[in-house]
Amino acid sequence: MKYNFDKLIDRRGMGSLKWDVPEExxxxxxxxxxxxxxxxxxxxLKDRTTHGIFGYSVVTDEWYEAYISWWSRRHHLKMxxxxxxxxxxxxxxISSIVRKLTTVGENVLIQTPVYNIFFNCIQNNGRNxxxxxLVYDGREYAIDFNDLEEKLANPQTTLMILCNPHNxxxxxxxxxxxxxxxxxxxxxxxxxxxxxxxxxxxxxGYEYVPxxxxxxxxxxxxxxxxxxxxTFNIAGLQTAAVAVLDPVLRHKVNRAINTDEAAEPNAFxxxxxxxxxxxxxxxxxxxREYLSQNKRCVRSYVxxxxxxxxxxxxxxxxxxxxxxxxxxxxxxxxxxxxRRDSGLYLTKGEEYGVCGRQFIRLxxxxxxxxxxxxxxxxxxxxxxYLGAGQA
Length: 391
Prior knowledge:
Blueprint: E1 26-27, H1 39-51, H2 61-75, E2 84-87, H3 90-101, E3 107-110, H4 117-123, E4 128-131, E5 135-136, E6 141-142, H5 145-152, E7 157-163, H6 175-187, E8 191-195, H7 216-220, E9 222-226, H8 229-232, E10 240-243, H9 247-259, H10 269-279, H11 281-305, E11 310-311, E12 320-323, H12 331-342, E13 344-345, E14 347-348, E15 359-362, H13 368-387
Parallel strand pairs: 1-13, 3-4, 3-7, 7-8, 8-9
Antiparallel strand pairs: 2-10, 5-6, 9-10, 11-12, 12-15, 14-15
Helix pairs in contact: 1-10, 2-10, 3-4, 3-9, 11-13, 12-13
């Protein structure tokens, strides 16, 4: 490989959310990779820093072109410049859009288990969370379309947040599924925010399908949130975009993001995104392969060493969803025990909805040596948990 993903980098003392933990702990929880970002991005940041002036920034034509080229080349969606709006992050955009497109007391539908911050974006704005739980058959997840339509048909349901690909279960929604979601939402006058921040983090050989690319119906009722931040591990640059194809809807979204002052780029946000999309593709391809090997490593290790735990098959994201139902009814208690016992810091599945109560989310996006250590800690702690009779 051209790039070294085995490199161990000490992130303690750097103000890292992930690594602001006691010395003996190993964090594998938040969606933040331990890989150094693409050298091409680092080179841009060094050059920009050397310039020495960090005044107000504008969104350049090159920024639009970088997004348009990337989505056309990699995701087969030909975007137009007018569709794109810069924003400081996907979460700020979702919160702004929820406030603009719904009113207090209305329902916003989500498909649980799902990214926990969706709950915050809804509840913090005085809207109601309406869950349409995914169906788990003991191996993989699917949509209960009868339940979905029943809840979309509720007159108080005016917005759906779609996670595409789905975090935490790692599911890539196929074109037929997305088309059916779009038709049901249009039928019941429900708009869609499609969070596609994990779209580039598919396993080799797999591609995600942009919701807006599926049909005219999907295009006209949706707002797509996208960014290079998860892909290239540059969340701290606060750079993202929303793509809105319908001009009336786009005007509302534009006003929402600007009203909330979430449309002002910092000195690194525009150039960082351009560098990522223009120069980071080779790094991404190697990282995807390395990450895929890490995910296989986790599955193999769990199968061989941790009876009763299963890794839910994943085709996307750098996160893994662990089924602990044969070990405990309360994976939250298990994660607390693991952290106390071995210092391994994981996320309890209940954060992603009550239906995640018997699951744990694990982030394997780190050098292999660190991953191996984490798996050894996991094995040891599960054995101690069962030995202590806490199951």
